[in-house]
Amino acid sequence: MLTTTRQQLLKDILSQPTAPFREVHVLRCVSAHLQRAGVPCCEDPIGNLLVGVDSRAAYRRLLRERSEQPVRLFIAHMDHPGFQGVRWLDEKRLAVKWLGGSPIKHLAGAGVWLSDGDNMREEGCLRKVKLLKQGRAMDSAVVQLKGKRASGQPARQLFGGLQFRAPYWRSGKRIYARAVDDLAGVFVIVSTAIDLFKRGKASHPPFLGLLTRAEEVGFVGAVRHFDLGWLDERRRPLVCVSLEASRTLPGARIGKGPVVRLGDRCTTFDPGGMRLLSDLAERLLPGRHQRRIMDGGACEATAATAWGIPTIGLTLPLGNYHNQCFDGGMDCLKAQGPAPEFVHCDDIDGLLRLCRGLMRPGLAWQAPWAGTQARLRKNAQRLKGYT
User: Fold this and answer.
1) For residue range 38-96, what is the model confidence (pLDDT) as tens digits?
2) Quick one: angle between helices 183-198 and 4-14, nearest 10?
3) How far apart are CA 157 and CA 85, in angstroms?
4) Is the residue at 379 inside a domain?
5) What does the longest C-alpha to C-alpha distance in the chain come to?
6) How many CB atoms lie within 10 A of CB 57?
7) How many CA atoms lie less than 13 Å away from 42 in the CB half-sphere?
8) Is residue 20 part of a domain?
9) Residue 9: in which H helix or E strand, if any?
10) Residue of 58, 74, 143, 150 with fewest CB within 10 Å of its CB?
């Protein structure tokens, strides 16, 4: 069960304003929590946050150690679909460009928030919404401000997203927020890192966290990080653990446990790693986890796989993916209109347990199929008399 301290950390992270390429509030919040807990962190040249190391040199040193123990590279993204300011039309109207997925109906008059990267500046509502040609998300709109713009505020410094009754609130075991995807994954990585480093750096297997930018527009932060070539220098095994919050599907229901994600819309994941993860989930969360290909969307595991990194995936079943009313709930007024995202406390707790489990020493990374081989051999031996 989430402790009071962890609940406050979750609330703090999920309350941060964010949008693609405008993750500064999340980065500041997370960095402050990590530093207070004594967890090293630093930024890469792209502005992604590296958790568990305090410099590029430390990152490279960890990867270049000769060991059979794989580095666990946990990846989540700091952005959520939102808009950037383009130009002022007058003192109360701002033309904006939308980035990422979105609701596709009932958008006229929908409430929005705005930030300049330092403060929350203003609230407003959407007007003159245009969808992409494919009709799958917003392309552009005009934001009508409640008040007049701050004097001299450049349009391109402003960004924002859909607004609801609050940035974060709870109803029973449901957690509602304007942005769960993927700030819940960010929370799990931060929480896991704090737990690990509390026990001392030398007491746990090798851990890295990569909190990325602009995932919602093509995994941009992850791709640019992989293109740095730092991971190509490794001398030891590496496994990427992709953490996401993904649209509910049959067999991936809210409140039934975290999902061992066998693949996404683009690809299946590393078979050996997924065998190990599935066995771990059976031991740690028997009857309280789910398992399926989450093909409602793609995730950074696809990017890692494309760069040749063995990758496994975990996800939270997510209500109202990309703030589109698919699953009902509070503040969800009309189907496919704006709605807060929501997840279940027990699913988050289960995801934390699985991530801590992946950091246990002694997992069978080199021989994940050994148990399966033994069972199949035993069966073949039993049936020898029939040949």
Assistant:
1) 999 999 999 999 999 999 999 999 999 999 999 999 999 999 999 999 999 999 999 99
2) 140
3) 7
4) no
5) 88
6) 9
7) 10
8) yes
9) helix 4-14
10) 150
Can you say whether the dihedral through the CA atoms of 73, 167, 109, 174 is positive or negative? positive
pLDDT at position 203: 65
- Clarify whether residues 94 and 241 are in a common domain: no
101 and 89 belong to one structural domain: yes
Element (H, E) at 145: strand 138-145
Distance CA 210, CA 225 (A): 9
Number of other CB atoms surrounding residue 79 within 10 Å: 26
According to DSSP, residue 169 is labeled E
Residue 68, C-beta contacts closer than 8 angstroms, at least 6 positions apart: 236, 237, 365, 366
Give the number of domains in the chain.
Answer: 2
The distance of Cα 289 from the centroid of its chain, to the nearest Å, equals 18
State the CB neighbour count (10 A cutoff) for residue 6. Answer: 18
> For residue 255, what are the β-bridge partners?
none
The pTM score is 0.96
Q: Is there a single domain that holds both residue 91 and residue 186?
A: no
DSSP-derived 3-state class of residue 226:
helix
3-state secondary structure of 267: coil
- Give CA–CA dist 24/383, Å, rounded: 62
CB atoms within 10 A of CB 368: 19
Beta bridge partners of 238: 71
Alpha helices in 218-342 (DSSP H): 220-227, 271-284, 300-306
Count of residues making up the chain: 387
CA dihedral over 163, 149, 79, 194, signed as positive or negative: negative
Torsion over CA: 184, 261, 297, 318 (sign): negative
Residue appearing with tokens 């919404």: 129
Domain annotation covers residue 173:
yes
* 382 part of a folded domain: no
Q: How many CA atoms lie within 13 A of 96 on its CB side?
A: 32
Range of the domain at 56: 4-80+169-369
Q: Which helix (H) or strand (E) holds 39?
A: none
